[in-house]
Amino acid sequence: MIIEILKSKIHRVKVTQAELNYVGSITIDEDLLDAANIIPNEKVQIVNNNNGERFETYAIRGERGTGMICLNGATARKVQLGDILIIMSYGSLPMEEAKKYQPILVFPDDNNKLLK
């Protein structure tokens, strides 16, 4: 049996931008993508702690070191600047491997920067 499990999570980042007139996706600071092992175009689930919205889109690379978290396209309507998000990606593994897998968890500071 193959099951879907949490692969990566960026916990509690702040929305810095929302661009309605864009093709879609979420732009994430490349430092955060690297730390979470999320690659460009990977499907992500987003949870908005401020309004309870849950939605899926795909990640795109944002400028490294900027702390950028920008919702693009229709997802821009699901956030306000300053909202707190949790960004998650999932993977599929055989049951026995899944039992041993430890997800990558990233806990940025209040400015979406990696803690040193």
TrEMBL record:
Catalyzes the pyruvoyl-dependent decarboxylation of aspartate to produce beta-alanine. It comes from the Bacteria. This is Aspartate 1-decarboxylase. It is an enzyme of class 4 (lyase). Heterooctamer of four alpha and four beta subunits. The gene is panD. The keyword Lyase applies. One of its GO terms (biological process) is alanine biosynthetic process. Belongs to the PanD family. It is found in: Cytoplasm. It comes from Pedobacter cryotolerans. Binds 1 pyruvoyl group covalently per subunit.
